[in-house]
Structure formats: C-alpha cells, structure tokens
Amino acid sequence: MDAFLGEKLFSKRSKNGLMTYVLPKKNFNKVFAMYSTHYGSIDSEFIVPGTGERLKVPEGIAHFLEHKMFEMEYGNVFDKFAELGASSNAFTNYTNTTYLFSATSSFEQNLDLLLEFVETPYFTKESVEKEKGIITQELRMYEDEPEWQVLLNLLRCLYHNHPVRIDIGGTVESIQKIDVDTLYKCYNTFYHPSNMILFVTGCIEPNEVFELVERHENRKNIGVQPPIERIYPEEPGSIHNPTSTVKLDVAEPMFLMGFKDNDVGYEGFELLKKEICIGILLEVLFGKSSVLYERLYEEGLIDDRFSFSYEGQKDYGFCTIGGETRTPERLHKEILESISQNQARGVMEEDFARVKKKFLGDFIQGFNSVEFIATSFVSYYHKKIDIFDYMKALNEVTFEDVNWRLKTFLDFSRHATSTVMPK
After folding, report:
1. Sign of torsion over alpha carbons 143, 149, 154, 159
2. The domain that contains 264 carries what CATH number?
3. Span 37-75, pLDDT tens digits
C-alpha cells in the first residue's frame, strides 16, 4: 500500500516464473492490461538458455515477432478483440515488446485472449515471407518520415557500435534473413514467462485476475527459466560522428541535437534518480517557462513543437533536444551558448524547486490515467525500478545533484546534431 497515493498493488508469481501485478481503480469503468516481455530491438545477440549456444540474429526480429504474434491459425487477433468490444495494440521499443488491450466489458474473455495469443506462436514459411513484404514497405515508409529519420541519424552519430543506433524495425536487408526457425528460437528464449510481466489496472478484483492467470498458466508444464545472457558490443565513450544532414520532403528544416550519457552500467533506484535528475535539468534549461524557450519562441526560432527528452537504460543513455526551425545552425548555437552560461553560473535554486514540484504534481496526476499507470509500471519494471519509489527518488534528488549533471552530462565533446533539410 502506498500511503501517499492511496494505491494498493497486488502481485503473484506463477510456478513458471510469470509475475502478475494488479492495481485496482474502483472508480474507473475501464480495465487496461499489458503483457510485456523484456525483449527489444537491441537484443540481437544472446546465449540460448540451457544450450550454451551463442546466437546472433537479424536486426529487427523483435519487431517482426510482434507483428507475427497477432496471427493465429484461426485468423487475426485484432478482429477477436474487436468482437469482444476491446481496443488492442502492441509496440516494440529498444528494450521490450508489449501487448495490450483496454475494455469496459468482457474483461475475462479479453484477458484470456491476451494470454492465449501471446503464448501461442504460429509461424509458417508462407506467412513469414508475406510479412517480409509488409515490413519492407513499412521500413521504406519510415525512410521518408522526417521525425524518425532525424532521431535515427542522431543515434547513428552518438553511437559507434551499440544496437540502439539500428532502426527498431531492422533494415530491408536484415529482415530478409529472418526464417521460421530463428523466430521460434527467439520466441522460446524471450517469451518465456520468467522474462515477462502481466500488469492489469482499472475496475477489477485482483483475485479474479490471479485465478484466471493460474488456470491459464497451469495448463502448461513449463519450469522457471534462468536469466538470459544478452551480449552487446563494446561501445567507446566518444561519439561516432558530430553531425548528420539529409534532405527530405519537408516544408521547414527539422533539427535535433543530443548528448551521449556515459554514466551507465546500473539499474534500479539509482537509475531512477538519474532519470529524474536529468529530467529536472532539461526542464529547467529548455522547458516552456525557461528564459531560453520564451526568447527563442518570441523570435520565431522555435514553435510549440520544440521538445526534449532523456532515454536512460542500464547499458546506454542519451537526451534529445530540438524541433522544427527556420535556421538549424542558429538554434544549435543558441542552445550551446545557453548551456555554457548555465554551466558557468549554475542552475538557480528557485528554478530547481519549481520544477521539482511540477514533477511531483505530474506524477500524482498520472494516477488518474490507467494508461499512464500501466505504461509507467511496465517500463520501470524492466529496469528493476519500483514505480512507488518515484517520490522517494524525487525527494532525494538535490540542487547539487542537478548542477553536477549540468556539468558532467552536458559535455560538448559528447554531443551531436542531426538535421533534415527541405529538398
């Protein structure tokens, strides 16, 4: 029970290692469920558990698997969810693949369907070949998507070898190498219950969920699997390239700059504190109430699509800053000058206190949304972070911490830029 938020979390571990969590929200009329595996686009090399086999698989296979899981022998799973009145979806990111549904009725049938299709791989040679054509079209479409290209090119500048620099969907060449046997090997490795989490929130009784899950999981005779050994290439501390510029069919240039985080190698509470600390720093420097944002906005150098974010994982971290702008070179110069000035004088204590209160308010308000609760819980879980440690971590982040990150994280030698210019 979290006394401050008034939320109670229930959990149960199945015999096969699956962790199920339920956070009831009695006053809601909707149920939101996520079934997630700790398997993302960067997991392209690993040791197959129980065999000692070192396997390097084609890039994009996690995303390919996500597409294939919605195909069952009887047809398309999306149609089944629609028949039950539920909205369903899935996504693959760098570190995990997640399947979800939201519904206001027929909860048990929808949850049973979620468990059934994620736990029932059905791959045929014909369907795999067909999927290659579909994903090839998707990849080629993204080649013309400025928002995706500006980010992908930035990551290629920041990283020499780490697979975060590879498109989540892989490449047209890599997906041609995917076959049925490799799909099953990846599925059996990463979709084992020991590597997964089921999270349910909304108007639901925990015991209803646990009983349904146990009935479902007990049908299978699967033991707990040992942790998966993931293999990532050595990554130098330096950036790969300082800049990238491409031309696409855009009305106005798109600019993104980023800083590579070399303070990596840990997860859990310390990673949460770092995330919050860097988040506060970026909000103070570039948020809508910052001096820089107001000035650049008034001068027409940026618009309300200007944004910033930090992505922090155990093995990598980076931030991005930018948006559409008439003059990318000037925006780059203004941002660097502002960082230099702040590094010289330090963040103002009143700005730190104001943003810290904002973070607390945003977090508390988030618990009015089942989507926020589920997405945050699952994302944190894969990083060995307890969502209810958020306020403790926020409280422990000090003014001195933020100023230290200002000087160490925003290191100009580890920054790069990516620009999409009009043709």
Report:
1. negative
2. 3.30.830.10
3. 999 999 999 998 888 889 999 999 999 999 999 988 787
From the list 59, 66, 217, 235, the catalytic residue is: 66
Instruction: Give the span between the Cα atoms of 413 and 77, in whole angstroms.
Output: 48
Q: Mind listing the pLDDT tens digit for each residue in 397-418?
A: 999 999 999 999 999 999 999 9
Say how far apart CA 48 and CA 394 lie, in whole Å. 38
What is the Cα–Cα distance from 33 to 21, expressed in whole angstroms?
10
Write down which residue in 173, 206, 230 finishes a domain: 230
Domain extent at residue 333: 243-422
267 labelled catalytic: no
Q: Is residue 235 part of a domain?
A: no
Under 8 Å CB-to-CB from 111, ≥6 apart: which residues? 33, 200, 209, 212, 213
What are residue 19's phi and psi, to 5 degrees? -95, 125
Residues 6+ apart with CB under 8 A from 157: 239, 240, 241, 242, 243, 244, 258, 416, 417, 418
Residue 358 to residue 283: CA distance in whole angstroms: 10
Q: What is the largest CA-CA distance in the chain?
A: 65
